[in-house]
């Protein structure tokens, strides 16, 4: 059973831990560098990316996490976690850092004030069944993807408040990294987490 860490400095840690367990892996909170060593993959939860960036620095966690990401550790970022994995952040704070694991440009709080938080259907490639219920909370969208980034999902509501968001990229994968603008951890549907657990399983090489 793969052991998957959930970065537990800030954000909706408990929901991700529950979803990872529901997807058949062991979930462990990661607060310090020593706790990173044993995990086979890492979830970066939703929350507030400016705060998360600051706490990663304060707790000397930014470099250790970046080092593992650069070495190919599988990671899944939702919402603020997506922002943390991006190479470029628009509408961020000047001092906000991100890991740059996925060559893409994300825009923070992109969906605007009227549709700050909303729910919309998404069609997800590679996730069994395809259709997924997207829950968006002050979410980023992906404005541009670089080479090697696979677009897995876009908003596909075609109606209502979320209509303005139609077609926006909200799920991507690049190599060992997965990111979603929405929050699959707040639904009872563990398919996205199962997809990530499968990524972790298939990347697990022999130890040493
Ligand atoms: N708006 C938040 C940020 O910029 C993300 C919101 C979320 O993770 N639900 O980090």
UniProtKB/TrEMBL annotation:
GO terms for molecular function: glutaminase activity; pyridoxal 5'-phosphate synthase (glutamine hydrolysing) activity. Gene3D superfamilies: 3.40.50.880. The active site is at residues 79, 183, 185. Its EC number is 4.3.3.6, 3.5.1.2. Pathway: Cofactor biosynthesis; pyridoxal 5'-phosphate biosynthesis. The keyword Lyase applies. L-glutamine binds at residues 47-49, 108, 137-138. GO terms for biological process: L-glutamine catabolic process; pyridoxal phosphate biosynthetic process; pyridoxine metabolic process. One of its GO terms (cellular component) is cytosol. It catalyses: L-glutamine + H2O = L-glutamate + NH4(+); aldehydo-D-ribose 5-phosphate + D-glyceraldehyde 3-phosphate + L-glutamine = pyridoxal 5'-phosphate + L-glutamate + phosphate + 3 H2O + H(+). Keywords: Glutamine amidotransferase, Hydrolase, Lyase, Pyridoxal phosphate. InterPro entries: Class_I_gatase-like, PdxT/SNO, PdxT/SNO_CS. PROSITE patterns: GATASE_TYPE_1 (PS51273), PDXT_SNO_1 (PS01236), PDXT_SNO_2 (PS51130). SUPFAM superfamilies: Class I glutamine amidotransferase-like. Catalyzes the hydrolysis of glutamine to glutamate and ammonia as part of the biosynthesis of pyridoxal 5'-phosphate. The resulting ammonia molecule is channeled to the active site of PdxS. NCBIfam families: PLP_synth_Pdx2 (TIGR03800). In the presence of PdxS, forms a dodecamer of heterodimers. Only shows activity in the heterodimer. Belongs to the glutaminase PdxT/SNO family. This is Pyridoxal 5'-phosphate synthase subunit PdxT. It comes from Glycomyces buryatensis. The gene is pdxT.
